[in-house]
């Protein structure tokens, strides 16, 4: 089925003679066979968004539909790889066409020549249904890739292969109840705009450990949850996203660089193979899939990149893995949507964004969740979706931030004034929130006892009080405060500087275990408690603030992650002793 | 055989509609021949059936619908590149205007370039010493970075950019260096300031100038940075040179873009700028960088004047989201006579962490940098409190921080436009200032470095 171009305007192409094509079909445009997707049809005229630069394209050129919606290839070979927005592998494109991305490059997403060692799980004669595991492939040293019965297939296993195979080899034959035999390969396809099905969905109840103190202790996110990181430029959105990609205790990370800087993707590409997962010691890249549509790459593919990423995430979720999707930045995705909408001459909604912006965003985030996967073994998997938002001028009253806030459950608001003072991560503790606290509290209590959540409540209280006291200080100076209030200010400062601040670029500090976070915060709060008692006993406030242990607490976060317990015991002992000395000194005087 | 059309139907500068065309493609370059023989340039913005909408690069004045001829050249706008471009001056479209001979092209390159494959990029990590403390010490520039200067009308951004161009060097390195300078809608005087500075220091022989001045056609400005970056790409990746690109002023560029967008009756985004301003700017800025296996690099310093000094205006805002940091100039500091008036707190270099430290600058760089930032921030807060409540309201520590902030501005920031400080001098000066503060407050620096570097009080 072939049509002819009648109009070209940037990434939008109109072609006639496509009466048989379907909306959302992928088409190949012009002699260079550029990849595009049909957005609208009027009669036999199709409006097509082209995922590559359209320069040099003109009326008369041919458009051929593939008859298939925009799909991704799923199977072994995705991990440890970097794709563009429509799942073309960038290293292979480079080998084919050099340092720049040239047009019409056609590379399959999964390597057709690489052999994988397929280990069968199912046996001939087994009854299988969609989602059942046929066999496994050790895809990378970190991840066991499960080859599942694709959607719409069920029946009896007739034969199953083992050993070295490429992804397109038949590895099993399944006969359905009508007697039809299905030849199954390790490669499946799935249309990106449709969520992959599951058995049932659950409310998230386990936290995702990120190793970031302000996140894990104050504003935790659940596995299967959704979060947004909004912030003006320079407030550290990307560093937060990178930290989550590095340290989150999930099995698989899908990192979508959506309309962001090329060098940031290069950074991940270079750094992740060098860094090891603190849990299994394997290089982080072995569990990571990168999707890169940098800001200079064609804008239409940016819109697709988010869907490509989340579909791959769902596929790994269906194997029973915990997956995190990090999208940086959803604002660029929304702008791509706006650009195409404008070219289609649709009636604009707020700030020129299309009226369906909010529903598209909701559809994306709703694909996160904890599910029981399809298949007989009742395995569970999760997709956690975390999107960065880049509001113009840092003002979150704009449509993308507002639409996002209505959907996500965790909100880590980045603050430029914290960033200017080099307080990182610059997550504002007063405006951020997590709606998972109630569902996660039982888990924390079970693991660490009542103390963890009590500490959290106390910490938030002190920080809140500090902001009120600051108002007073700004008006009348701090001499007007009572010693107890001065102590609150002092403790809040310690919480901010000694606990919340975390340096992503220092090895000892980049990742904090729950145990270390708990002890570190406990130490600060113990100081507060002891000083409060001491003040009641009439101890000298300034002497309490000046004890030597304070500097040690300040450096305590740098303690060796494997041997911090002993060091913290020592600091606490010293702190108690010094506070007692101050009390005694006060009584002597 | 190139066809000529005499079918111009409509001209509404800067757009023009040509009918009954055949085989015309999107983004193609065209030529308009006026009855008097004058030739002007245009490019195809949209083609629908046999009707092409083209954008003029120059004024529409004198174009006659009946008599003017249009030719489409079958390719997008190209630049003839060669090493002989060094030392020459071109107009905003890449034509020589210095009276010299035409360039004997080594190649013709599409001025739009191609997106760089992220898998082919090499991460910028080589420290560039600019000799400016606020940049070297606090917002370190590395080779292949794009670091804009956010300025305002009347602020001395030109002096700072010229100082960087003059002083920048990579330590222990003697590779070939080149400057590509693109004047985008700036005044003759400002352009001459740069050119004279290059001339005075002898850098002019290593410089390619593309000049679209304030009285040149505004629409041509859309091509100027692309032409300049094409030359830079050629020098960096074909000729292995270390290229510094200065683009000034991006605000004029964005305004030209808005003009064309409005003429096309596109749905405007914020403040009338087109919704694709981000993408458009990104296709310029992202052309900076390094590539694996290539010796050369493109380091970019775009300059933009923030309308009303407002950082949230779409031009600086979108720029900040694309570039790897920003150097912000402050009117307050300028009034105080601080030269260069770099506002260090909101300034940032995102790539500094990979370019500093042992083997690159010095082991204590990272810690002292963070400490200086934090201390200056606290010092400024203290000073603010002091203006409201008086000095007596400050604690002893805060008084020290306030003193630190003053000294920092006076000694560290204000170094003048001719002082070229080595990185050691910059770091030592930082330590000398930290001496003002109580030692227990130096929490961001490893104790062993405090032992080693902190001068005796």
Concise account of the structure shown:
The complex is a heterodimer of chains A (589) and B (457). Chain A has 589 residues and is an alpha+beta fold.
Low-confidence stretches of chain A: none
As residue ranges, the low-confidence spans of chain B are none
| Biggest sheet architecture of chain B | 10 strands, mixed
Helical content of chain A, roughly?
25-40%
Care to describe what's here?
The complex is a heterodimer of chains A (589) and B (457). Chain A is α+β, with helices and mostly antiparallel strands and 589 residues long. Chain A is built from 17 helices and 26 strands. The N and C termini of chain A lie far apart (97 Å). The longest helix of chain A is centred in the last third of the chain and has 26 residues. Chain B has 457 residues and is α/β, with parallel strands linked by helices. Chain B has 13 helices and 21 strands. In chain B, the strands form 4 sheets. In chain B, strands 9, 11, 13, 15, 16, 17, 18, 19, 20 and 21 form a 10-stranded mixed sheet that branches. A 7-stranded antiparallel sheet of chain B has the order 1-7-4-5-6-3-2, with no helix packed on it. In chain B, 54% of the residues are buried. Chains A and B meet through β1, α1, α4, α6 and α9 of A and β5, β11, α6, α7 and α10 of B.
